Amino acid sequence: MSTATGNRWAAWLRENEPARYNLATKQGWDAFVHAAPRTPLERLSRTDMTRLSEEELEDYNDARSVWNANPPTVQTVQLSRAYSIIDQVMASGRRDADKLRGAVVIDAAPALGKTTIATRYARDFHRKVIRRHGPRTPEGHQRLPVAYLPLSAGTTLKGMNTKLLRFYGHPAATRATRGELGALAVDCVTSCQTQVIVIDDLHFIDFKHRHGQEVSNHLKGLANEMPVTFLYVGVRLREKKFFDEGLLGEHAAYAQTSRRATRCEVAPFTITTTPGARAWTALLAALEQHVLLADAHPGMLTDHAQLLHRRTQGCIGSLTNLLDRACYLAIATSTETITADLIETVTTDNAAQTLASTS
After folding, report:
1. How far from each other are the two terminal CA atoms of the chain, in whole angstroms?
2. What are phi and psi of 84, to 5 degrees?
3. Quick one: which of 47, 179, 226, 304 is 20 to 30 A from 324 by CA?
């Protein structure tokens, strides 16, 4: 293979390198929403690879690593169910602005795809609105159908408003007073005709603490002032008393959040039932088609369904971690396929590693 031909792998890497956008800014969110799919990468045989120069082979293997680490979002049972629940709640988003909308709470253990569900749904919604109404509002503002707000540990009411203003790129985000921040946030949401606000990592808020209760009350206030649907994402939010607003005992029954918000649970895959086993195998089959190895073949993953489940406990985050690393090892060791021995060799995330060793 000529050097000119071989250089295409380096060119592919330049054009398809891992995305570096920041979803917490309108520029980063817009880049995510409008990102084009990667150019398909050619599968070379072992013989083809022997004809590559050392640098060409290095570029091709790096290109394969990028490809293998970025599979498409699979339409799993969990994702379909979550979309159905969000669609039902979004039906109230068609209400006039003077009427309250509902909220969705994607609540589950770690590594089950909560953020992926929220961001993919929000991306699809964003694209649909822009297609129908265009990139500008009638007043000439940039139309931003979705705002994405990831929280951090110790987030306060002021901190959350500041993050929201930073998403819109408002110049007063760092110098406005606490009272001004809330009013400016409402103005940004209204001017840009935002209809969905995704608040991720909500589990960082301690709803039993005074600051957490302030954030909870502020969220209810924003829901009253903003004609938007909130999509909350977090780990074990029910256990953290999000729905009860930190209240205890009989007082929890009066929590408004519990009436306004709809919980959407995301469960891990199970193989103890026939439908569960089928869903797990279907996921593996879909991922299997994406993997780019010289000796990849049908059944490469599905034949090891039980082993992969034992090693990941059915958590899609742990599964993708394992497959990224298995593909890397398959290339690095010239195995060029995924075998049971290779799966056992992979060191994955701590939780999956610990639970697999005790099962």
Report:
1. 49
2. -60, -45
3. 47
Count the neighbouring beta carbons within 10 Å of the beta carbon of residue 356: 18
Cα–Cα distance, 336 to 328 (Å, whole number): 9
Q: How many helices (H) and strands (E) does the chain have?
A: 16, 5
Q: E strands of 236-305, at which residues?
A: 261-265
Q: What are the angstrom distances between the C-alpha of 39 and each of 16, 285, 345?
A: 7, 21, 31
What kind and span of H or E run contains 334?
A: none
Q: Cβ(23)–Cβ(45) under 8 Å?
A: no
Which residues are 229's β-sheet partners? 196
Output the six-digit token pair for 260.
């306004």
Between CA 299 and CA 285 the distance in angstroms is 7
Residues 6+ apart with CB under 8 A from 339: none
Q: Using alpha carbons, list the distances in angstroms from residue 132 to 39, 49, 145.
A: 27, 47, 11
- What ranges make up the beta strands (E) of the chain? 103-108, 146-150, 196-200, 229-235, 261-265
pTM: 0.90
Beta strands in 165-320 (DSSP E): 196-200, 229-235, 261-265
pLDDT tens by residue, the chain, 359 residues: 444 444 899 999 999 999 899 999 999 999 999 999 999 999 999 999 999 999 999 999 999 999 999 999 999 999 999 999 999 999 887 777 766 788 899 999 999 999 999 999 999 999 999 999 999 999 999 999 999 999 988 788 888 889 999 999 999 888 877 778 888 999 999 999 999 999 999 988 887 777 777 777 778 778 888 889 999 999 988 888 777 655 554 444 435 666 778 899 999 999 999 999 999 999 999 999 999 999 999 999 999 999 999 999 999 999 999 999 999 999 999 999 999 999 999 999 888 888 887 76
Picking from 315, 316, 266, the residue whose alpha carbon sits closest to that of residue 104 is 266
Q: Token digits for 64? A: 């394969």
Contact criterion met (CB below 8 Å) for 265 and 137: no
For residues 169 and 76, what is the distance between their CA atoms, to the nearest angstrom?
A: 35
- Domains of the chain, with CATH numbers? 1-18+35-70 (no CATH), 77-265 (3.40.50.300)
